[in-house]
Amino acid sequence: MSELDPADVFRQEANELIETLEQALLDLEKRPDDRELVGLAFRALHTLKGSGAMFGFTAVSEFIHEFETAFDRVRKGEAAADRRLIAAALEARDHVAHLIEDPDCDPKRGEAILAALKVAVSGEAAPAATSAPNAPAAGIDATSQAQPAGAGWHVRFRLPADALTLGTNPLLLLDELRGLGPCEVVALAGEVPTLDRIEPQQCYLAWDVTLRADVAKDAVDDVFLFVRDDMELSIEPLAADAADVPGAPAALPAMAESPKPAAPAPAAEPQTAQRPAAKAAAGGTERGAGAKVERNATLRVPAERLDELMDRVGELVIAQARLSQLAETIHDASLINVAEEIERLTASLRDTTMGTRMVPIGSLFGRFRRLVHDLSEDLGKPISFVTEGEDTELDKTVIEQLADPLVHLIRNSVDHGLENPDRRAEAGKPATGTLRLSASHRGAEVAIAVSDDGAGLNAERIRRRAEEAGLLAAGQAISEGELNRMIFQPGFSTAAQVTALSGRGVGMDVVKKTIDGLRGSIDVDTLPGKGTTVTLRLPLTLAIIDGLLVRVGDDRYTIPLAAVEECLELPTGVDKDARGRSFLNLRGELVPFLKLRGLFQTEGEPDPYQKVVVVSSDSMRVGLVVDQIIGNNQTVIKQLSRLHSGLKTFSGATILGDGTVALILDVMHLVGFGQKLEERRRAETLGRAA
Amino acid sequence: MGKTILMVDDSASVRQMVGMTLKQAGYTVVEACDGREALQKATASRVDAVITDLNMPGMDGLSFIRQYRATPASNGVPIVFLTTESDEGLKAQAKQAGATGWMVKPFKPDQLLAVMRKVAGA
């Protein structure tokens, strides 16, 4: 039916309606007091009018409107449905049918019929009751006089309390305002009650919108068409000078509070974090000597004092976790309030403190200028050295440890990557090679890339070397990324000759070791003939990380969240191996898993349903079987004492909210351990096969 | 996935016209021919908006709006009612019953879409 011509559907429907109308009128003649019949007739007329107009039968709809107006008197009981009236109405009904067949017929006839009908209902014409049938539909109302518009409008509104429940979406209103022109929107949150009194379905916010667009007031008004009746709304022209003051309070008595700016974001960005320190320093100078105040004053602080401060903050985070836990158990509202306040303060203190330890990486980049210059001289390769993102900040300790790996990477790029000028000329490249060192933030990580426009890695040669060195079985399938990462294996070098600079196979494995130690990762991208990019990705800080807390027996352990790939339940029947290691089929891939209970020689009954946390390092994975996964937590990393520093399985310890200690698992080591099992399994299978 | 809109009207032609316009704009349309059917469809599965006529046989638009608003399924669902005249009294009654907005018949497809964007979003 929906494929038919709409006009046909209308005609068909109209015929049914006209029939209904006729039946009702005829019945009405016999039972003039039957209200039901009057209603039926009226409804038929009403529908005819509505759909008629919509399908372009304007004449029908206009005629019926008059018909309806007249008949309305009958419905209201002001006129009796006598014989004369029914006759006139039936004539009108015939005319409707006629109009539908031939919309362009002579209007005179219709007028005569209507006049007769009007006389029939009382003799009085009722044009006064005529409400324009063609009144514009809602939302597009533009008939009221347009007001001159200035620079824009300052709109303030608060929705009625039940607006959300009744389907009004303030976001859509704001979007519609934005559709009119650029808007500055400030939410007024002053009326939001406390959590215990809040009604989840009620809208407590009011909005303050500065619309900078030359639109008519009616256009703004129309946005609020449906909610206008019960809402608080003020639309005021934006004075030309006030246009520069966003959110200048328009002093509405009902909404007297001035717009609050958004709460300052916690000083997560290192750049903002440094500012308070600078300010404090400036203040100090002012008070101390009374000498000139320097704008960008900085303060030199011994590094270990900052380390000490970070330690203290770590302790504070732990103490705060205990307080929060205590408040939860005691369940005292005022205590919870204080605990939450302290939690917020601690979090911002932690971020600020971490910020003060941040150092721009530019200090490190500077050192390499000389290195590249010397290398260029020694090797007779002209090099243009480009650095980017010098102001990217990183934890001081991370930066210190980055110097060596970067030296190795740069040497490698210059020596192996960039070609001789002659070779470059052959390849159609400019004689001067480009070496690019860049740093940028990527989420909670910093990416440092060393890229050259040299020859790129030679995949074939890498494979050959890897096979020679026994790192790879002959013909073993391996992904490009894995193959590229082979260059970071100890003793690996593809340089045909050992030069003064590189080729001994020492160096790149140092890079890997250091980056692993910093819990970072290395990516190698290479395009033969175009160049190579080595990207180091490092966590922003080493002091506090996000961890996943798990339980094994009665003890708890933390796994760095960045290394966790997924958590699942250990399928029953795979844990036959009594020696505490086995394999798990993970979507078709065999992943070795370690039962931490076996590894740590945990006593007592294991939980019936064991969980597996799959962790990865360097695209190798291993599952760690635990009793329970507790959840995320802020892990303040504490170094293990000298006595325990030989432990390979743990990289540190942290203190939990209840005061107990959780050891932090060294994922890299565990993955390596798991991979050894994997290799042994392969060897065993091979041995058995032989 | 487009928003689902329940269209309630006893006139098949209006249902068709509205349905076609909304479908072309990417909405999913569910149709009902009176208040009773509408109530059953609106409570059986979640809809994102309702367009309803007021004058219908069986259960009329006002009773439908009242009964629908009495169910939790209607929470936050905008209801637009259709009316032939801009009768303030009727508008007030419908708003009282829990309607969100209204449209005056006849309307053009553009106007319908403008109102739907206003109450339900694109």
UniProtKB/TrEMBL annotation, chain A:
Residues 251-291 have a biased composition (Low complexity). The keyword Methyltransferase does not apply. Gene3D superfamilies: Histidine kinase CheA-like, homodimeric domain, Histidine kinase-like ATPase, C-terminal domain, HPT domain, SH3 Domains. It is an enzyme of class 2 (transferase). Coiled coil: none annotated. It catalyses: ATP + protein L-histidine = ADP + protein N-phospho-L-histidine. The modification Phosphohistidine is found at H46. Signal peptide: none annotated. Its EC number is 2.7.13.3. It comes from the Bacteria. Residues 294-542 form the Histidine kinase domain. SUPFAM superfamilies: ATPase domain of HSP90 chaperone/DNA topoisomerase II/histidine kinase, CheW-like, Histidine-containing phosphotransfer domain, HPT domain, Homodimeric domain of signal transducing histidine kinase. InterPro entries: Bact_Chemotaxis_CheA, CheA-like_dim, CheA-like_homodim_sf, CheW-like_dom_sf, CheW-lke_dom, HATPase_C_sf, HATPase_dom, His_kinase_dom. Involved in the transmission of sensory signals from the chemoreceptors to the flagellar motors. CheA is autophosphorylated; it can transfer its phosphate group to either CheB or CheY. This is Chemotaxis protein CheA.
From TrEMBL, chain B:
It comes from the Bacteria. InterPro entries: Bact_response_regulator (IPR050595), CheY-like_superfamily (IPR011006), Sig_transdc_resp-reg_receiver (IPR001789). Residues 4-120 form the Response regulatory domain. Keywords: Phosphoprotein. The modification 4-aspartylphosphate is found at D53. PANTHER family: CHEMOTAXIS TWO-COMPONENT RESPONSE REGULATOR, STRESS RESPONSE REGULATOR PROTEIN 1. This is Response regulator. It comes from Jiella sonneratiae.
